[in-house]
Write a structure and sequence with these properties.
The chain contains 10 helices and 5 strands, in the order H-H-E-H-E-H-E-H-E-H-E-H-H-H-H. By secondary structure, the chain is of the alpha/beta class. It has a 5-stranded parallel beta sheet, with helices on both faces.
Length: 265
């Protein structure tokens, strides 16, 4: 006869009544389930205690708000100062693709001066040595205005002396741009003295725009555009649009590619 006075907890587990031809193997899962559901303290007593089980604390994981970013994104401002835009055309696509920066353009000394006068200060200025003798002037203007880094842009055709002058003027470094084949702008070309507005007019004239179309584009009257062209002609010493464009091209203030569609209306 079985001893019913046993103190073993597992020995007093309730057993499901037999139904039909149920065998021992089919009853085993029921015993296990009864043990886990009805007597959880039995399992806890049979499991050895670990030193970390009593000291462990479950800390809820903190979630960042949906509008929060771990690293704050600051869009750098880069100035591309390049007469003629040859280096600008090479560097601008790469900067937009890989640096995701805001780009400011300047094609003459007067445009750089206008930026400085308006208090525009960014993170990096890239100044082409195609400003020739005015390159040190441009670099000093930008450094005095607060631009922290100024790179001098050069090509393989530029001699060493202008590079040294750029460093002495305050350039932080020199970047040689490959793949640019273009003649250097004329020294002391009068187009370097054009105002930013006059440069806009000359470039649109070079793209084939009429006075009426230029006026509409720049929100000016056709008479004002005509006066701008007359003043540019006096600076250049010529009286027709073709000669104005030719001198501006030799001065390096006309970009290589046409950025605006032609309008003759």
């Amino acid at each position: 006869m079985t001893d019913m006075t046993s103190t073993d907890p597992a020995a007093v587990l309730p057993v499901a009544p037999e139904r039909g031809e149920m065998g021992v193997s089919s009853m085993a899962p029921a015993l296990v389930r009864n043990d886990r559901i009805n007597r959880p303290e039995t399992m806890a007593q049979s499991r050895p205690a670990t030193p970390t089980s009593t000291a462990r604390m479950d800390v809820p994981r903190q979630r960042l708000p949906t509008n929060h970013t771990v690293i704050s994104h600051h869009q750098d401002t880069v100035l591309l100062a390049d007469p003629g835009g040859a280096l600008d055309e090479v560097l601008r696509p790469a900067l937009l693709q890989f640096a995701d920066c805001r780009i400011v353009h300047a094609g003459s000394v007067s445009e750089v001066t206008d930026l400085v006068d308006r208090g525009v200060v960014g993170d990096l200025a890239m100044v082409s040595l195609r400003f020739r003798s005015n390159t040190p002037v441009v670099i000093r203007k930008l450094r005095e205005a607060g631009w922290p880094r100024v790179l001098a842009l050069t090509t393989a055709a530029v001699p060493v002396a202008p590079v040294i002058d750029a460093i002495k003027a305050g350039a932080s470094g020199v970047l040689s741009v490959a793949g640019v084949i273009e003649s250097q702008p004329e020294e002391n070309n009068p187009s370097q003295n054009l105002s930013p507005r006059e440069l806009e007019v000359v470039r649109l004239v070079a793209d084939g725009w009429s006075n009426k179309a230029i006026a509409s584009q720049l929100s000016l009257s056709a008479l004002t555009v005509k006066n701008h062209l007359a003043r540019i002609g006096r600076k250049f010493g010529v009286g027709d649009r073709a000669h104005i464009v030719a001198i501006a091209c030799r001065g390096g203030v006309i970009p290589n590619s046409i950025r605006q569609p032609r309008r003759f209306d």
